């Protein structure tokens, strides 16, 4: 499929669907399209994979929230669901819903599978940056309290000097099968919980879990120009893998604190240039301090009107890809003094009278031109 369909559409649900409705919709779609019931039907197999991926996201509250907010981009970075791997990746889900499938598991091939070392889950956190930090780039320590691989047993869960033993119930398959009439149902082994091995002599540090909970700090580099809604990936800083497997990744979602002086529009910065009436009338310049504390001189042409926007190219936010910077958009605001001296009042009255005469002369010229024509 060149473009993924909406996960709610795949399962025929509304965005307000409950967890139970999601499970029921997936159960119906999986039963209808499972390859065991549609041998050789590639379209049914594709629909089964599509429904399974949708269920994997929508049945997880955290992933569903990310999907509702950002769409498919919000759940990218999950393990690849393409090809035949989807059947083994979601075997536990299917076993939970159906108690296994006829023929000894997915595909009806009766294969025995031990889960073995597995990649750890990904973690997602949010970090709020100031506009200045986003403009200059910054490093920040992100504090995580998560399980980490036990140093004593190297994540195996077994006491140093000993090893995990093959499960005696499933004989290392990670699954057990039960005959119900003419159908063989397969489910996760309750003894080893699908691992295929058990710990006979647990590690004293992690009590056989292979991981201990600790606070740790991860240094995250935020590049100059990063914007709200973007996400950074820090490889290997997620949850530890099972049985010494590789750790997952850490995903950092970026948000920006609202700035008092600037608004951001992509790579452009929008702000106000406050000038006097004289500067707006005669022309001049206005100095603006950017979020990174550098200063830009904005040229104010003579006769500039309030609300006009003056663009200064190359003085906005740097682009994350390093291809230059955006523009500074200065909205002109004419400052009117609340109190003025007696001399200033006289001068303004003279100016008002002079401008009034000019308007009268312009009106007379226009009237004469209209009469002659």
Automatic annotation (TrEMBL):
<dbReference type="InterPro" id="IPR018253">
    <property type="entry name" value="DnaJ_domain_CS"/>
</dbReference>
<keyword id="KW-0235">DNA replication</keyword>
<keyword id="KW-0479">Metal-binding</keyword>
<feature type="repeat" description="CXXCXGXG motif">
    <location>
        <begin position="150"/>
        <end position="157"/>
    </location>
</feature>
<dbReference type="GO" id="GO:0008270">
    <property type="term" value="F:zinc ion binding"/>
</dbReference>
<protein>
    <recommendedName>
        <fullName>Chaperone protein DnaJ</fullName>
    </recommendedName>
</protein>
<comment type="subunit">
    <text>Homodimer.</text>
</comment>
<feature type="binding site">
    <location>
        <position position="206"/>
    </location>
    <ligand>
        <name>Zn(2+) 1</name>
    </ligand>
</feature>
<dbReference type="GO" id="GO:0005524">
    <property type="term" value="F:ATP binding"/>
</dbReference>
<feature type="binding site">
    <location>
        <position position="203"/>
    </location>
    <ligand>
        <name>Zn(2+) 1</name>
    </ligand>
</feature>
<feature type="repeat" description="CXXCXGXG motif">
    <location>
        <begin position="167"/>
        <end position="174"/>
    </location>
</feature>
<dbReference type="Pfam" id="PF00684">
    <property type="entry name" value="DnaJ_CXXCXGXG"/>
</dbReference>
<feature type="zinc finger region" description="CR-type">
    <location>
        <begin position="137"/>
        <end position="215"/>
    </location>
</feature>
<keyword id="KW-0346">Stress response</keyword>
<dbReference type="InterPro" id="IPR001623">
    <property type="entry name" value="DnaJ_domain"/>
</dbReference>
<comment type="similarity">
    <text>Belongs to the DnaJ family.</text>
</comment>
<feature type="binding site">
    <location>
        <position position="150"/>
    </location>
    <ligand>
        <name>Zn(2+) 1</name>
    </ligand>
</feature>
<dbReference type="Pfam" id="PF01556">
    <property type="entry name" value="DnaJ_C"/>
</dbReference>
<dbReference type="InterPro" id="IPR036869">
    <property type="entry name" value="J_dom_sf"/>
</dbReference>
<feature type="repeat" description="CXXCXGXG motif">
    <location>
        <begin position="189"/>
        <end position="196"/>
    </location>
</feature>
<feature type="binding site">
    <location>
        <position position="189"/>
    </location>
    <ligand>
        <name>Zn(2+) 2</name>
    </ligand>
</feature>
<keyword id="KW-0863">Zinc-finger</keyword>
<keyword id="KW-0677">Repeat</keyword>
<feature type="binding site">
    <location>
        <position position="167"/>
    </location>
    <ligand>
        <name>Zn(2+) 2</name>
    </ligand>
</feature>
<keyword id="KW-0862">Zinc</keyword>
<dbReference type="GO" id="GO:0009408">
    <property type="term" value="P:response to heat"/>
</dbReference>
<dbReference type="InterPro" id="IPR008971">
    <property type="entry name" value="HSP40/DnaJ_pept-bd"/>
</dbReference>
<feature type="domain" description="J">
    <location>
        <begin position="6"/>
        <end position="71"/>
    </location>
</feature>
<comment type="function">
    <text>Participates actively in the response to hyperosmotic and heat shock by preventing the aggregation of stress-denatured proteins and by disaggregating proteins, also in an autonomous, DnaK-independent fashion. Unfolded proteins bind initially to DnaJ; upon interaction with the DnaJ-bound protein, DnaK hydrolyzes its bound ATP, resulting in the formation of a stable complex. GrpE releases ADP from DnaK; ATP binding to DnaK triggers the release of the substrate protein, thus completing the reaction cycle.</text>
</comment>
<dbReference type="GO" id="GO:0005737">
    <property type="term" value="C:cytoplasm"/>
</dbReference>
<dbReference type="InterPro" id="IPR002939">
    <property type="entry name" value="DnaJ_C"/>
</dbReference>
<dbReference type="GO" id="GO:0051082">
    <property type="term" value="F:unfolded protein binding"/>
</dbReference>
<feature type="binding site">
    <location>
        <position position="170"/>
    </location>
    <ligand>
        <name>Zn(2+) 2</name>
    </ligand>
</feature>
<feature type="domain" description="CR-type">
    <location>
        <begin position="137"/>
        <end position="215"/>
    </location>
</feature>
<dbReference type="GO" id="GO:0031072">
    <property type="term" value="F:heat shock protein binding"/>
</dbReference>
<dbReference type="Pfam" id="PF00226">
    <property type="entry name" value="DnaJ"/>
</dbReference>
<feature type="repeat" description="CXXCXGXG motif">
    <location>
        <begin position="203"/>
        <end position="210"/>
    </location>
</feature>
<dbReference type="InterPro" id="IPR001305">
    <property type="entry name" value="HSP_DnaJ_Cys-rich_dom"/>
</dbReference>
<keyword id="KW-0143">Chaperone</keyword>
<dbReference type="InterPro" id="IPR036410">
    <property type="entry name" value="HSP_DnaJ_Cys-rich_dom_sf"/>
</dbReference>
<dbReference type="GO" id="GO:0006260">
    <property type="term" value="P:DNA replication"/>
</dbReference>
<dbReference type="GO" id="GO:0042026">
    <property type="term" value="P:protein refolding"/>
</dbReference>
């Amino acid at each position: 499929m060149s473009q993924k369909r909406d996960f709610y559409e795949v399962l025929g649900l509304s965005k307000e669907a409950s967890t139970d409705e999601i499970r029921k919709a997936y159960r119906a779609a999986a039963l209808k399209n499972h390859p065991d019931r549609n041998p050789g039907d590639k379209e049914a197999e594709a629909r089964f994979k599509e429904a399974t991926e949708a269920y994997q996201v929508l049945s997880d509250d955290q992933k569903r929230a990310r999907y509702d907010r950002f769409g498919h981009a919000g759940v990218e970075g999950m393990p690849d669901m393409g090809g035949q791997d989807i059947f083994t990746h979601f075997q536990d889900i299917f076993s939970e819903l159906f108690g296994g499938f006829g023929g000894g598991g997915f595909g009806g091939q009766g294969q025995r599978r031990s889960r073995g070392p597995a990649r750890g889950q990904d973690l997602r956190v949010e970090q709020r940056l100031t506009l200045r930090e986003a403009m200059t780039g910054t490093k920040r320590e992100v504090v995580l309290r998560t399980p980490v691989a036990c140093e004593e047993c190297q994540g195996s869960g077994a006491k140093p000097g000993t090893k995990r033993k093959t499960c005696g119930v499933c004989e290392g398959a990670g699954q057990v099968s039960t005959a119900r009439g003419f159908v063989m149902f397969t489910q996760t082994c309750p003894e080893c919980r699908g691992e295929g091995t058990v710990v006979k002599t647990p590690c004293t540090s992690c009590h056989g879990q292979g991981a201990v909970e600790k606070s740790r700090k991860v240094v995250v580099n935020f590049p100059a120009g990063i914007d709200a809604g973007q996400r950074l990936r820090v490889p290997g800083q997620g949850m530890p893998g099972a049985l010494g497997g590789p750790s997952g990744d850490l995903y950092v979602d970026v948000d920006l604190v609202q700035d008092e002086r600037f608004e951001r529009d992509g790579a452009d910065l929008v702000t106000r240039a406050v000038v006097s009436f004289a500067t707006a009338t005669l022309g001049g310049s206005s100095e603006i301090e950017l979020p990174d504390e550098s200063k830009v001189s904005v040229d104010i042409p003579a006769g500039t009107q309030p609300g006009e926007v003056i663009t200064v190219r190359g003085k906005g936010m740097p682009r994350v890809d390093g291809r230059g910077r955006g523009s500074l958009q200065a909205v002109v605001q004419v400052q009117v003094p609340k109190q003025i001296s007696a001399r200033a009042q006289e001068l303004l009255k003279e100016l008002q009278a002079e401008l009034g005469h000019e308007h009268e002369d312009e009106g007379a010229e226009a009237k004469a031109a209209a009469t002659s024509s």
